[in-house]
Amino acid sequence: MSVTESGASTRRVLAASLVGTAVETYDFYIYGTAASLVFGPLFFPDISPSAQLLSAYATFAVAFFARPLGAAFFGHFGDRIGRKSTLVASLLLMGGSTVLIGFLPGYAAIGWLAPLALCLMRFGQGFGLGGEWGGAVLLAVENAPPGQRGRFGGVPLLGAPTGFLLANGLFLILGLFLDAEQFKAWGWRLPFLASVVLVGVGLWIRLRIGETPTFKKAMAEAEASHVPAAEVFKRHPGALAGATLAVIACFAIFYISTTFALGWSVGKLGYDRESFLGAQLIAMLFMAAGIVAAGYAADRTSPRAVLIVGCAGTVIVGALMGLMVRADALGLVWAWMSAALLVMGLVYGPLGAFMPSLFPPRVRYTGISIAFNVGGILGGGLAPFVAQRLAETGGVAWVGFYLAAAGLLSFVGLMGLKAKYAD
Q1: What tens digit of pLDDT does each residue of 359-376 get?
Q2: What is the pLDDT of residues 171-197, one digit of tens each?
Q3: How far apart are CA 249 and CA 384, in angstroms?
């Protein structure tokens, strides 16, 4: 293969790893944004606004409980038949569920069937996403040249700010062209329907790539694991438990500084929705910068060392939250979100290089997928719901303490982990 062909192949691989996580974040964040702004009164009975918002946040958590099931399912096939085919299937399920949400009728039209259908589609999102992150990371890392695993592993994770920017930017544009009634009546559906475009692009890219060299080598050297999940729990319980704790901080930061912050700041602090979405849009650039910096730092030091620094940063931004997230000071709120998302880059960016090193190639897809998605339940699944309750009963400072605790849990998990597998 020529240098030009090799470069083109590398770009396709990195694009294929990036596009899926971008779709993942886009799908999840448009759901989180819609849950914060319209799902409460649209899909639930006419009760108090606070109860409706909490109900919407409860459906938000459904996907997180579906994710470990999807991780075990897609991980099984990813470790047995390959990364590429599994990633195509997970993208189809995840994107298809998102598009269908855009067609759902509300509570006024079909009663209790409305929240039930919403939960089913949310489950489909989570189940498909359970196989997405692990496969995208392996696609990048298992094609990485020596000494560049941190940078390559960070590329699919850049899908998070990319998907957020697409989602937030689209909601911001809708806010400029639609009034509040139009947005609540039908405008919120457009971002869900637009997901079909992203899924189409993702499929086109992924169908043009091959299998990873590491997976080919593992299959040539030994028979595939018959039940990868059982092997992970039996032979690698310490790595699984530690990795699960290690990802808690990144989920907590993301959903507290985006989904919760949006609902609380617009609903309780009185900020204009478009102004706040614009502030979040700019703050998200700090997360992208953090991921890039973390990838380079991970290659120069170690992914684990960068993650530990990020955990310390999580505690600090948690402690500052009560002082900075308040009414009539959007600049301070933006500064806090920017700092929090920069720190998230440090606790998220190195995971792509670090987590695959904890499991052998024959069960790697399953191991990192289960750890990442169970950690997602602990760190992100209930974060908007818990944060909302804490803020209502004790103030935003308690949400900051909750975030700091997440950082400490991830630090504890990292203390028991050590990279074992280079391939």
Answers
A1: 999 999 999 999 999 998
A2: 888 888 888 889 888 999 999 999 999
A3: 14
Helix (H) or strand (E) holding 414: helix 396-415
Give Cα 238 to chain centroid, integer Å.
24
Question: Measured between alpha carbons, how far is 368 from 358 in angstroms, rounded to an integer?
Answer: 8
- Where b means 16+ CB within 10 Å and e means fewer, 2-14 reads eeeeeeeeeebbb
The Cα–Cα gap between 2 and 34 comes to: 48
Q: Compute the Cα dihedral for 410, 415, 421, 423 and give only its sign.
A: positive
Is-contact 280 266, C-beta < 8 A?
Answer: no
- 6/188 Cα distance (integer angstroms): 42
With cut-offs at 50, 70 and 90, classify the pLDDT of residue 2.
Answer: very low
CA atoms within 13 A on the CB side of 349: 33
Q: What is the pLDDT of residue 347?
A: 97
Q: Rounded CA gap, 245 and 374, in Å?
A: 9
Residue 205 burial by Cβ neighbours in a 10 Å radius (0-12, 13-18, 19+): middle
Q: How far from 185 is each of 38, 40, 54, 104, CA to CA, in Å?
A: 9, 13, 21, 12
In sequence order, the 6+-apart residues with CB closer than 8 A to the CB of 375 are 243, 244, 245, 246, 247, 248, 251
CB 49 within 8 A of CB 191: no
- DSSP per-residue codes, 135-171: HHHHHHHTTPPTT-HHHHHHHHHTHHHHHHHHHHHHH
**Angle 34-125-391 (CA atoms, 0-180°, nearest 5)?**
45
C-alpha dihedral sign at 392, 397, 402, 403: positive
